Amino acid sequence: MSVTMLVPYKGENQLAGYMQQVDSYPMLSAEEEFELAVRYREQNDLEAAHKLVTSYLRYVASIAKEYQGYYGIKFMDLVQEGSVGLMQAVKRFDPHKGFRLATYAMWWIKASIQEFVLHHWSLVKIGTTAAQRKLFFNLRKSKDTLERLDATQAEEMGQRFGVSGEAVLEMDARLSGPDDSLNRCLVEGGEEIQNMLADSAPNQEMRLLASESERLQQQMIKQALSFLSEREQMIVRARIMCAEPVTLEVLGERLGVSRERIRQLETRALKKLRAFFEADGASLEDLMPA
Predict the structure, then answer these.
(1) Could you give the 3-state DSSP secondary structure of residue 185?
(2) Alpha carbon 153 to chain centroid distance?
(3) Exposure winner among 56, 139, 158, 250, fewest CB in 10 A?
(4) 192 forms bridges with which residues in the sheet?
(5) Cα dihedral 215, 65, 14, 106 sign
(6) Hey, is 158 helix, strand or coil?
(7) Percent of the chain whose predicted confidence (pLDDT) is above 90
(8) 73 in helix, strand or coil?
(9) How many C-beta atoms lie closer than 10 Å to residue 112's C-beta?
């Protein structure tokens, strides 16, 4: 399998040709997917792997669309990177664990696209800590209802994401550049990108898979938390899973321990969670709520 094979079209009609190709690939039932995944995993059947990949290219396009227009990157470049993530997911997927490929592939597709976006934006000047990465990919979502981001709002967002208000304003300035609009026509007099993507939106089966993916994601988080002590669970829920994280000082007062002790317990708990998720090729940051 190669990305070139999956995204073969060049020039101004690349997107049109690609979306037409994607729509021609059949979706797989759970039974078909399981059989193909077993054939690839146990017999290295490349034809089976190809069918798995092509059946989920719609999913790649759907996820890539979430990043389109925000970072000044061409849609097909996002699709290309997402396809790399999808192929990695197929290579590592274990059908006997009870998850659909959609659930597993989501983490790989997003991770591949996000790594590409971060590289494109050269975030060395801003930083690449987990908190700054989280801010980068959630700032647009967080300010959807705001006409303008002022210093006070920047401070509030900074507290939520664990960075300074100044870092929020700097990130906002970088993200406020001209967008590669979804309404740009492919060619003069041609169909608009937004309309083409709308026509190729996930069908009912794809929406059901996305719903299943979310359900299994929550199930996996619940299972991971069960490996933590009651105190560690409380800290993770308050510090990582809460929309407005509780400070170390406040948690220390609640539990009757020092701020430093809370930090140590949090570090230990996150280490356990990362080990649990990474065993399945998933990412703690991708699974936890933003």
Answers:
(1) strand
(2) 25
(3) 250
(4) 185
(5) negative
(6) helix
(7) 22
(8) coil
(9) 23
Q: How far apart are the first and last CA of the chain?
A: 34
If you ran DSSP here, which 8-state letter would residue 103 be given?
Answer: H
* C-alpha count within 13 angstroms, C-beta hemisphere, residue 133: 15
User: Could you tell me which residue, 152 or 273, shows the higher pLDDT?
Assistant: 273
Residue 172 and residue 149 in contact, taking contact as beta carbons nearer than 8 Å: yes
Residues 179, 290: Cα–Cα separation, whole Å? 23
Task: Tell me which of 38 and 96 has the higher pLDDT.
Answer: 38
Residue 30: CB atoms within 10 A of its CB come to 12
The mean pLDDT of 61-88, rounded to a whole number, is 84
d(CA 130, CA 44): 36
Enter the tokens of residue 249: 């000082």
**160 or 90: which leads in pLDDT:** 90
CATH fold for domain 226-287: Arc Repressor Mutant, subunit A (1.10.10)
Q: What is the pLDDT of residues 21-70, one digit of tens each?
A: 888 888 898 899 999 999 999 999 999 999 999 999 988 988 888 887 66
Task: Using the Cα atoms of residue 208, residue 210, residue 213 and residue 219 in order, give the sign of their dihedral.
Answer: negative
Q: Whole-model pTM above 0.85?
A: no
Residue 101 pLDDT greater than 90, yes or no: no
Q: Please, which residues bridge with residue 185 across strands?
A: 192
CATH of domain 1-121+189-203: 1.20.120.1810
Instruction: Decide: 248 and 259 in contact? Cβ < 8 Å.
Output: yes
Using CA atoms, how far apart are residues 263 and 244, in angstroms rounded to an integer?
17
1-121+189-203 matches 226-287 in fold: no
- What length is written for the chain? 290
> Structural domain boundaries of the chain?
1-121+189-203, 124-180, 226-287
Q: Which amino acid is at 138?
A: N
Q: For residue 201, how many C-alpha atoms fall within 13 Å in the half-sphere facing its CB?
A: 7
Q: Max Cα separation, the chain?
A: 68
